[in-house]
Design goal:
The chain folds into 2 domains: about 1-20 and about 80-95, no CATH class; about 20-80, no CATH class. Helices cover about 35% and strands about 10% of the residues. It is built from 4 helices and 2 strands; from the N terminus they run αβααβα.
Amino acid sequence: MTQQEILDLIEETNYSKVPTRPKCQNCKKVMVLYFIVPNELWYQLIKSSERSMEICIDCFASKGDEKMIDWSKDIKFYPLPFVKQVEVQEVTPKE
């Protein structure tokens, strides 16, 4: 099933929630790859005012490169495919 077919099905069945991926709060791009790094590295690269934000790997890497810090150590990646979000999305009928 294609993404459009899924969206059409949700619309036809009168459901209110559509699966979405998070957006980077820095560059506003849709995040298709989630990542986790050790807290120490996060604190080195991300300003305190931005630490609660979701940031994509591209923006995170840019911040590391700007500061000449190796951001690749102990990083873990988790893909965010649309189809998996559809499978786990809690779907509730519209009222």
